[in-house]
Amino acid sequence: MSSLFRKKPLETLSAQSKSKSLARTLSAFDLTLLGIGCVIGTGIFVITGTVAATGAGPALIISFILAGLACALAAFCYAEFSSSIPISGSVYSYSYSYVTLGELLAFLIGWDLMLEYVIALSAVATGWSSYFQSLLAGFNLHIPAALTGAPGSTPGAVFNLPAAVIILLITAIVSRGVKESTRFNNVIVLMKIAIILLFIIVGIGYVKPDNWSPFMPFGMKGVILSAATVFFAYLGFDAVSNASEEVKNPQKNMPVGIISALAVCTVLYIAVSLVLTGMMPYAKLNVGDPVSFALKFVGQDAVAGIISVGAIIGITTVMLALLYAQVRLTFAMSRDGLLPGLFAKVHPSFKTPFRNTWLTGIVAAGIAGFINLGTLAHLVNMGTLAAFTVISIAVIVLRKKHPEIKASFRVPFVPVVPIISAGICIWFMYSLPGVTWLSFVIWIAVGTLVYFLYSRKHSLLNK
């Protein structure tokens, strides 16, 4: 039993954080745009309309504020961990679950996040495919029906070719180097922000306050349930923490990147929600492209076309950040012996986990191409909420057991803030469907089996 809760020495984490196997090239600006690139995408271009029409009405802004609050509290915890000993692996290492809570829980959290990132990457690629095919249709171009979606998604569909191809293209970019990836990401994110601001500027002139009445048609219960749903829209700021081993001056830049990304995204979500629900009746927004649809509703077809292109661009950067986060997570777990050594091998020229990147990209492309994701997407929310709960608890344990650790950013009012953060996350988890809980339990059970059959024996701590 004691081996299940063996803990990694802090000296090991410190040594890994100083490793030069990954090149340190990223600034606070790069980190901020990496976070924005992952957060602003499917949530703002798709989820806003669906949730407004079916769960919250104009009170969607309250749902976004509640979800943003839960993320902000968790972001404080991420910022403290990432500014103390910067090391890849997201909550797997940053919550110091390996140091504070033991190896088994550390592995299961890593296993949980592996599912989150891969499913999210595949789901976002599927959304990208839909927007891309819609854009082609506008030019009277059509992909053969057999290649438009996964089996069962549309009549005659066999393989979602656009989704698989875009994942492989993103894989090629990420595998070449982190600086090359962030240059591409930075340009695209700045374009995406400009397009969102264009919608706000144009749309605000068509806002009718009457459309905000009734403000809360589904009651407070609908607002809370919607907050758990739109939580998906915030996923990605934690991906910033995976980059810490490739950041210049991480103790200073990591907290700035994490908190700045979340702050910018929250402001944009609230502004878009207000304008969107003010432009037209909320009940009509249950469409796949609500932002473009609202502009067409008020006769701004040209701007709607620009927004559609912006959605495709925006979703592309989400995939880049998700793939990047997944690869750095498995890199960290492999380095500790909990996954095969293949995942930790660094390319001699590119200084990236090259084989790991391509293996992850091929698996995600296969999932997006052949599997109709459906309710599996709910696992993304469940996995992230579980991770946020652990990091909130771990910051309390870390402060108690290792007061000697110094961080450039410290969570205020410990343990009150972490306890509130964990409570909100558990509250959101409770509101998710039963099938999501069942799927999550099955995945964790599989992870437990993998740990006992492989990871426990091959762990560096075991040696």
Notable traits:
single chain; 463 residues; mainly alpha; Amino acid/polyamine transporter I; 68% helix; globular
Notes on the structure:
- With 463 residues, the chain is mostly helical.
- It has one domain (24-454): Up-down Bundle (Amino acid/polyamine transporter I), CATH 1.20.1740.
- It has helices at residues 10-17, 28-39, 42-56, 60-82, 91-94, 97-101, 103-138, 161-176, 178-203, 219-234, 250-279, 290-297, 301-335, 354-370, 378-401, 416-430, 434-458.
- Helix 2 (28-39) packs across helix 9, helix 7 (103-138) crosses helix 14 and helix 7 (103-138) runs antiparallel to helix 15 (378-401).
- The longest helix is centred in the first third of the chain and has 36 residues, at 103-138.
- The radius of gyration is 21 Å and the shape is globular.
- The two termini are 17 Å apart.
- The model is unreliable at 91-95 (pLDDT under 50).
Bin the strand percentage.
under 5%
Our Rg estimate from Cα atoms comes to 21 Å
Number of domains: 1
Q: Per the principal axes of the C-alpha atoms, what is the gross shape? A: globular
Can you count the helices? 17
Mean pLDDT reading: 83
Taking the alpha carbons of the first and last residues, their distance comes to: 17 Å
How would you sum up this structure in a few lines?
Helix content is 68%, strand content 0%. The chain is mainly alpha-helical and 463 residues long.
